[in-house]
Amino acid sequence: MATFIVETGTGVTGANIYWSLASIDSWLAERNLTSWASLTTTQKESAIFTVMDWLESQNWKGYKTHYDNSLCWPRDEVYDQDGYLVPWNTIPNKLKYALARGSYEESVTPGTFLATGTQEDYITRKKIDVLEFSYGRVVPEKIVRKVNFYIEGFIEGGMDPNSGTVSVVRT
């Protein structure tokens, strides 16, 4: 069994998760996502760590508040999609919800948030003449929308919540 060390917003040494297993269990049960409850602890941990890796690969707005923190959050100078400043010493609830929902989706469709395919499938930036394109890692569109719904305001450059794609910016 893995050891979860929850980041509280204070720069917890060795933190590897944004929300406790009990909180994730409770949040998913409240949404009647009942298949999660039938999983073993090991299966839940595997899904959670997979989604944590995916979340940590995102290009977040703002700046880490602790340079030696192993996780991307807590962050400073981050505004949510409604324009509110996210306190620098907290983990946003929407990030926790994204972790929970993503973990559930990963448990239903294992491998959803794992990198698969060739390097060319995951080009993150490409420049053609004066146009520059940025792409996120490809995951199934419907599942991306369910998770990005919670975190889209925290992602640098913004994401199209309908497709999970990043908008193209001319430089």
The radius of gyration over CA amounts to 16 Å
So what's the overall shape? Answer: globular
Percentage of residues in strands: 5-15%
Sheet with the most strands: spatial strand order: 3-4-5
Mean pLDDT: 83
What is the end-to-end distance?
Answer: 48 Å
Coarse structural class = alpha+beta
The low-pLDDT segments are: 117-123, 159-171
Number of strands: 5
Describe this structure in words.
The chain is α+β, with helices and mostly antiparallel strands. It has helices spanning 21-30, 41-56, 93-108, 141-151; strands spanning 63-64, 75-76, 125-128, 131-134, 169-170. A three-stranded antiparallel β-sheet has the order 3-4-5, with no helix packed on it. It has a two-stranded antiparallel ribbon with strand order 1-2. A hairpin with a 2-residue loop joins strand 3 (125-128) and strand 4.
Summarize the structure.
With 171 residues, this protein is α+β, with helices and mostly antiparallel strands. It has helices at residues 21-30, 41-56, 93-108, 141-151; strands at 63-64, 75-76, 125-128, 131-134, 169-170. β3 (125-128) and β4 form a beta hairpin.
Please give the structural blueprint.
Elements: H1 21-30, H2 41-56, E1 63-64, E2 75-76, H3 93-108, E3 125-128, E4 131-134, H4 141-151, E5 169-170
Antiparallel strand pairs: 1-2, 3-4, 4-5
Characteristic terms for this protein:
171 residues; three-stranded antiparallel beta sheet; two-stranded antiparallel ribbon; 5 strands; disordered C terminus
